[in-house]
């Protein structure tokens, strides 16, 4: 069950993502769908992964690059490895 603190943190992630601009926000939404369906069950794991994803998207925006320029072409494998490393 998600509590008020978790909801607040999730809203902060969403606000942070929306500030990225349309292209990066679309990437975030696609990654978010993948992460939700990945089998992660603990909020701490979601929080870590969303934070890392947003850091990467912000870095891509600063460098004016695509996300795949930073993490490679296989985004799903990158996210899976990130989740494995966090467990």
UniProtKB/TrEMBL annotation:
Pfam families: DUF1048. InterPro entries: UCP029876 (IPR008316). This is DUF1048 domain-containing protein.
């Amino acid at each position: 069950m998600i509590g008020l603190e978790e909801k607040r943190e999730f809203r902060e992630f969403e606000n942070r993502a929306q500030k990225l601009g349309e292209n990066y926000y679309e990437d975030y939404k696609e990654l978010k769908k993948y992460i939700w369906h990945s089998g992660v069950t603990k909020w701490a794991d979601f929080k870590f992964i969303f934070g890392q994803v947003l850091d990467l998207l912000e870095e891509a925006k600063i460098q004016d690059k695509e996300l795949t320029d930073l993490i490679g072409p296989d985004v799903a494998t990158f996210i899976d490895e990130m989740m494995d490393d966090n467990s």
